[in-house]
Amino acid sequence: SIPLNLSLSGKINACVSPSACIFCSSSGAGGWSPMVTDQEPWLQVDLREQMEVTAVATQGRYDSWDWVSSYLLLYSDTGRAWKQYRHEDGVGRFVGNGNSETIVQNKLSHPVRTRFLRFVPLDWNPSGWMGLRVEVYGCSYKSYVADFDGRSSLLYRFNQKSMSTVKDVISLRFKSHQAEGVLLHGEGQRGDYITLELHRGRLDLYLNLDDSRARFSSHRVPVTVGSLLDDQHWHSVHIERFNKQVNLTVDSYTQRFQTKGEGHSLEVDYELSFGGIPLPGKPGTFLRKNFNGCMENLYYNGINVIDLAKRRKPQIHSGNVTFSCSQPQLVACTFVSSSSSFLSLPSASPGAGGFSIRFQFRTWNPEGLLLSVQLNPDPQKLRLQISNSWLRLTLHSSGRQKSEVSAGRRVSDGLWHSVSLDARNLQITLTVDNEPSSTIELWEQVQSRGSFYFGGCPATAPDCQGFAPAFQGCMQLIFINSQLMNLSHVQQGLLGNYNELQFDTCNIKDRCLPNLCEHGARCSQMWSSFSCDCSGTGYAGATCHNCEHFGNIFLAEKKVWTVLSHNSTAPVTVQTSSLQKPHVMIFNYSASAEQLRAIVSGSEQCQQEVVYNCRKSRLFNTKDGSPLSWWLDREGEKRSYWGGFLPGVQQCSCSLEENCIDMNYFFLSYKDHLPVSQIVIGDTDRMGSQAVYHIGPLRCYGDRSIWNAASFYQESSYLYFPTLQAELASDISFYFKTSAPSGVFLENQGLKDFIRVELSSPSVVTFSFDVGNGPAVLSVKSHVPLNDRQWHYVRAERNAKEASVQVDQLPLRFLEAPADGHLRLRLSSQLFVGGTASQQRGFLGCIRSLTVNGVSFDLEERAKMTPGVSAGCPGYCTGSSSLCHNRGRCVEKSNGYICDCSQSAYGGTTCNQGDISSLFPESSVTYTFQEPFSVMQNRSSQASTSSTDSRAREDVALSFVTSQRPAMLLTVSTFSQQYIAVILATNGSVQIWYHLQTDKKPDVFTPTPSNLADGRLHRIRIHRVGKNLYVQDIHRKYTLSSDAELILIRSLTLGKVARMEHFDEEVIQGASKGFIGCLSSVQFNHVAPLKVALTNRGSSLVTIRGPLVQSNCGALAESHTLQGKTSTSMTLMIYLFRLTNTRKDLAVIAGVVTAVVFITVCALAVVIRLVYQQRRAQRSSGSIKEEHRHSMYTDYRTELHLHNPVRDSVKEYYI
């Protein structure tokens, strides 16, 4: 241990002797205990000289109930300016004692070289008081110090003209209160240079090897490390270079990089300068401010430069350098709270001519009150505040009159900024950082009245409240009327007043160092928090940890395809290329190589279209078979196979199978080689030769892991995997089903830390973890039991900012991380799935699709070798094929399953039977939304698609058959005068109207100009996400002028609309005409209004005006469309509607309807008979060959699950 001297914050309550207060021991007496009246107690020790401290130990006061359970540790060279010690993860709190006798030792994660230490108690025994005995561990070290005054430097001159090195090692320690200054500089004639300098409180290293272009460039790009290095405390620097590889370390942060230039050695001419550039006019150099501060233990390739200078060796030239550190210590104070911190100071010797204020401040916050003062003549007030990172000075006069000026640019950058405020000669002048001043002109001279309030206001000063949040940051060098304010007197109660201040230290912290935003995201910060800008990274979340979807999504052939585009989408024509000078195209995709690899490996199937047309251009040499053109796979390997066949076969698969249709069009489908990263064309240099190629986007579908499941049927069984890699961030997602009331899904433990997800009760999922701040618990409670043998989804995430958990579509539960708590989750055991290491509280049931940090776990493979666990999961609803269609939900039963069609527009046993109805011109169906539904249903539909996407959403789908134009298909209106309308225009084209902003014109889209009033069946599906509008079946994407959501939805109407006061003229025209024809499978979000109207005639939600007939006209239209004919019965049905429009006799209507239905049934029977015979004949001859190639390119983010109905049986109703 180190011998210590003792200092105290005030009078002590009990201390037998200084040695008893300091040294920890198991016997003896005494200890430090402050007076109860001491508001900010601390115990300070003097190590008598600079020492390297490696550990501290604490003990309570002897034989008492007094001890300290947690404390801060501050250190200082001089005992005036202090800095808080922080562990590697930024935590400053030390764990203390739990009784008065046990010795608790805390080893420092990085040793600190200092003379003074200060112990500041945070918590103590609630049943006693503070009591402390301390001991410090460490050793002495040799120190060589040089002091630079901003004009001095050390020159290390070489023995020869130039020094060329392949390896360099440079180390030093420095401290300064200046944010700018050159620490090291050297350069050579061939263009080499090395410069190390402080810039804006950070350390920049410029290094170039043999690159003459960079020598004359004005845009030299440095490597930057560190932050807030102008804090008057020692910082260590270590530079290590070998050839082009460089490690730059500042304190505990290391940046590894490769130098620019062609060479591998650093060639410096004549000398290296330390502390500045002595010849600013030297060619090739750039002017920089010299260093002002102290350097210690400066070594260049093993040479102690300062020692040579002290001994006046000839190779060292020292100009105005002294060998002791005599830098002034500027004492600062920290404003801790954004609501209650303030410093009140009296006016010092006010002059007759006004007053003046000068001070320096630093902060990260863009808002905050810096200064407030009352003025005479009354009732004038002067306010200086930070507003949107600018300084704003406001003079409030009588009434609401005020004058304002602004100054400064970005003062919330963490740097020190100087402010000067002068009220003299009928003007108030504001100057920031010696920039041009801003002035407020006065009618009469003003004087300060009362105290000056810095940083905020006390509650007893109501005139000062409510202007801005209190200042959070540091202040120093406060001058009032040219007199420096002694902050030590303020702390001792001899001057002014204060609240929530820390003295003798600027406790600012850079929360973006290290950058906790992942994947290169930009970090920004305030005093107590940071945020991440994930733009352009392809990731999302609080720390950009979650992988976003990187491609467009669309639905084709009942598969959801992911499409990733690249930089060359148009066909490319190639001429004059040869093997010696080939044409090369490199493809850059909309995702990184890592993301591409994850998407391809996780998909069931991937393919990439290749179109190749040529004239007198060969793919292969006909003599030896060597390729003349080829492509590179995702790993950069050369591939010469084509056309979807396996590697090694230099032919198209269709030519081997003898079924080629278009030799110029084929797909690459071997997943391990996709996507194409480069193509090389090498045989178009002959007369008239040419090649045209097009490489399509990468298309993938399916999820290989979605049904990867394991069944746990013993409570003591579990699966184990390698330790979870989750130090700073982790996300876990899976599905489960069980009948057990509780059980642990997964758990991973460390020495003290842990992470766990469990079913804690039949309706509660709990996510808990401990990173060193004590256990954190988030629980989601479901309104229905979760042990219902149905699949449920769980997603849990933890990062440096927050933790969250979601179950199914229930609202997310969030928990913010403490601002100054531990960040790293340190785990050491294996990851247990379905149980725990103790083999207790194990899970009984099924878990599938377990994904951790984007990596899918192979549960089935691990389950095959684990007792008590089986691969897969039994049950009807577990398969990948959908048993229930059109958004129907599969519900497990003991002896089978049923389909819950309540959220679907379809009915029947498998939700595949559509409700088809016929509407008259005067008919309409209006669905009135219940009050709770007006907003909640819209938002629930949003949550069902994306748990983190809060943008407005609508899903609209309907099928129709009509020959009328114009016609109104569907309208959705709100109490706030918004509406959505789907109409057929006078030319028969469909129009989609969105009126979301009542003060602007509506958005109108026409997806297709074709006439849809042609008596055939058509289907429209619309999906909106924010501003993006997708028309799925026509494959169109549009952008709305607003992303507003529908507020207070009133009703949805099919057919004629009665209330049209808020509609536009063209919509009114269609609404007045109504609709003549058949509608089916109408759905708006989760509401199926036509289904409700036909199956719940007495429902209070539905209003039916005019006749409504449930019939099979839609099925007839569909079947006749397949035959390429127009339905005669449909023509009769439309004719009936027109007849009934002129004749109102319901008896006649019923009779005609019955006759037409009878004719329809007969016609349908004949058609079905003919179709059946034709298909039977085709199957027997085996002559059917189907050919289908369909491609859609649309930015579709979710599958609507609104497929065309497969009508197993069609019921008929007559009204």
TrEMBL record:
Recorded topology in the membrane: Single-pass type I membrane protein
Lineage: Eukaryota, Metazoa, Chordata, Craniata, Vertebrata
GO cellular component terms, semicolon-separated: membrane
Source superkingdom: Eukaryota
Record carries keyword Transmembrane: yes
Domain Laminin G: 145-325, 332-506, 708-873, 932-1113
Protein name: Contactin associated protein family member 5
Keyword DNA-binding: no
Alphabetized UniProt keyword annotations: Disulfide bond, EGF-like domain, Membrane, Repeat, Signal, Transmembrane, Transmembrane helix
Alphabetized Gene3D superfamilies for the sequence: 2.60.120.1000, 2.60.120.200, Galactose-binding domain-like, Laminin
Family classification: Belongs to the neurexin family.
One Pfam family here: EGF
Compartments where located: Membrane
Predominant place of localization: membrane
Provenance organism: Oreochromis niloticus
Domain EGF-like: 508-545, 874-912
Disulphide-bonded residues: 846-873
Residue spans crossing the bilayer: 1146-1172
